[in-house]
Hints:
Helix content is 40%, strand content 21%. By secondary structure, it is an alpha/beta fold.
Amino acid sequence: MTQQITVIRGDGIGPEIMDATLRMLDAIGAGLTYDFQLAGMAAQEETGELLPQDTLDSIEKNRIALKAPLTTPVGGGFKSLNVALRKHFDLYANVRPAISFKGSNSRYENIDLITVRENTEGAYLGEGAWTAPDDSRAESKMVVTRKGCERIVRFAFDLARRAGRKKVTVVHKANILKDVTGMFLRVAHEVAEEYDDIESNDLIVDNACMQLVMRPEQFDVIVTTNLFGDIISDLCAGLVGGLGLAPGANIGEKAAMFEAVHGSAPDIAGKGIANPCALMLGAAQMLEHLDDHDRAGRVRRAIAEVIEAGDRTTPDLGGSGTTESFTDAICERLG
């Protein structure tokens, strides 16, 4: 049976890496059809809206979305569309694997860990956010719920069990933020007791960051709150060669969205040198979500082989290839 997915081509380099990823999915015979929808600057230019209702309706209907990067201004301007999509569809679990690839510009070898980040509560919710008219003061409330804490921790332990992982590390700041992350830690301890087959421990976030840099091999699955997870998952991407190798899944009960977690990189848009790996790896996560584990594994192996060979990779990976040559090399291995 053919699966239709919503495809958002994104801003900046988004259309280039999305075209590459769809070529890869077609080459492997994934059996997908594509419902192309707009979001971000392209949507605003065509429809006058950053996130059109047609796009939301498409995701609700298809329940699966593949999204290229969308522009989010720093400081002022409109709020993150990624946050808006996660909130609208209650995509509470953000899953960010960090895996070493031979031939990449990485400081470490044999990294294989997953960060599971709560995606809908905490600091990014912006509860009660305001700025004084004279710009002298700004406030934003951090809110978490027992339900939100429990379902993300349970998701992480279920993921560990399903993927054959041995350990879950709970990352928090309960020594200082005693209420909001204190609740997260208490709930995590309660949930961990139900999974006696999975080792668990907890670390204060600053110590966790230090340990990730010093001895990343001690980590397997990390589960944490929204803000800490955003920072830690990028740190983990740095361990394996950067955001160009960093995919992300956003999963809820009724929908799931898969993406490259890097930005839209307008400075290199149209130059044909964008690295498509992060979005391709996000597509592999999507295939796993659709229970197509064989093709997901083949995608990852093909990417690993091309990166290790090195001759057709993009400049950020140390090669002299283009987005097209990189994609050609991957598709050849999948044909």
